[in-house]
Amino acid sequence: MAGRGGGGELRLLGTWSSPWVIRVRVALGMKGLSYEYTEEDLSSKSDHLLRSNPVHEKVPVLIHGGRPVCESLVVLEYIDETWGATGTPQLLPADPYDRATARFWTNYVNDTFFPSWKVLFRSTAAEQRAEAFKNVVPRVEALERAFGECSKGKAFFGGDDAGLVDVALGSHLVWIKVVDEVAGANLLDEAKFPGLAAWAERFLAVDAVRQVMPDAGDVLKQYKGFLAKWTAGAGSS
Fold this sequence. Notes:
The protein has 237 residues and is α+β, with helices and mostly antiparallel strands. It is built from ten helices and four strands; from the N terminus they run βαβαββαααααααα. Strands 2-1-3-4 form a four-stranded mixed beta sheet, covered by helices on one side. The chain is globular and about 50 Å long.
């Protein structure tokens, strides 16, 4: 990837469709940083990955000057702090209260929205999907309110530019679209969630996002493979 070197060799261990990895790639792109990307096979993890993240043994792992940084949100803040004075968009705002608010909603994405949506993602039957969809809608309602609070009438949760909450939630957008297609749903319905629906379009149009967001058709193919495996596993139990 072209860009600035960033004061030390950068390498990212990841998998192409992972929202957690997409987060990091978007942040690196926003900062204009160059890095070497290594695609990991999580069914046969490399020794490099196991050495770099021996606790969780998962991606993403950002290796900066030979030192690994693990867990996507930790990596995002590391990138923002390490390359903070660059004239590029900052993931976290300068104001302490706004920073705390951004961290709160980023954790909400990880700890509340995603686990609820994951039930929909893992559902294999129409009845399951309908119930899971109903249960995740209140989480989206909260995010719609959060967008109004954080954006203060501007384009992104982060204001004029995408910030930490944008990157954390936006990394899931292609997967949300694909699951909607399979489930016959529309989670970010413009009529119900006009703020989030418009935000999603703007986020996907950001250059750093477009450059790394996987193709929806490829993700759909992978997801259908997951569903077939889960359905087969349920049938054999």
